[in-house]
Amino acid sequence: MNDSLNKSLYFAWVTAIVATLGSLYFSEIAGFEPCKLCWIQRIFMYPLVLILGIACFRNDRVIAIYVLPLTIIGGCVSILHYSEQKLGLFEGTCTTGVPCSGEYINWLGFITIPLLALVAFVLITVFLWTGLRKR
Predict the structure, then answer these.
(1) pLDDT tens-digit series, residues 91-134
(2) How far apart are CA 122 and CA 125, in angstroms?
(3) Nearest-angstrom CA–CA distance, 122 and 63
(4) DSSP string, the chain
(5) Do 17 and 51 touch, CB atoms closer than 8 A?
(6) Domain residues for 17?
(7) Which CATH number does the domain housing residue 24 bear?
(8) Which of 56, 74, 81, 109 has its CA 20 to 30 A from that of 50?
């Protein structure tokens, strides 16, 4: 049982690392300039790499209580961003700089950067939630 708790924590950490590296790839290598909502999502994702990494090395499963608010709020921002892109809801969120409705990628007609961020936030939440429930 202890091993499955550790695995869920490690999976959450790896998900945060992959999401952060993907975000950095899109902005620093592909040259996609982040909009305001992208920056907000990054504010909630980037610290997770450090927090979950420390929790993994310290075997601290209680960290989920502190991390879940970050993943849930970050996920809500991702939903808002995706809704603006695909449904035209909440237009005008980004009034200066890069428009939040812009789509740098649109794989299969529905996979955009905010959806990728949402998937990462949901995965981290599920991994941590299952880790808490197994306690």
Answers:
(1) 777 777 788 888 999 999 899 999 999 999 999 999 999 877 76
(2) 5
(3) 17
(4) -HHHHHHHHHHHHHHHHHHHHHHHIIIIIS-PPP-HHHHHHHHHHHHHHHHHHHHHHHT-GGGHHHHHHHHHHHHHHHHHHHHHHHH-TTTTS--SSS-TT--S--BTTTB-HHHHHHHHHHHHHHHHHHHHHT-
(5) no
(6) 2-133
(7) 1.20.1550
(8) 81
Q: Token digits for 41?
A: 């999502």
Amino acid sitting at position 96 = T
CB 78 within 8 A of CB 114: yes
Residue 70 structure tokens: 């970050």
Closest CA to 84 of 69, 70, 98: 98
pTM: 0.92
Angle between helix axes 113-133 and 36-58 (nearest 10 degrees) is: 30
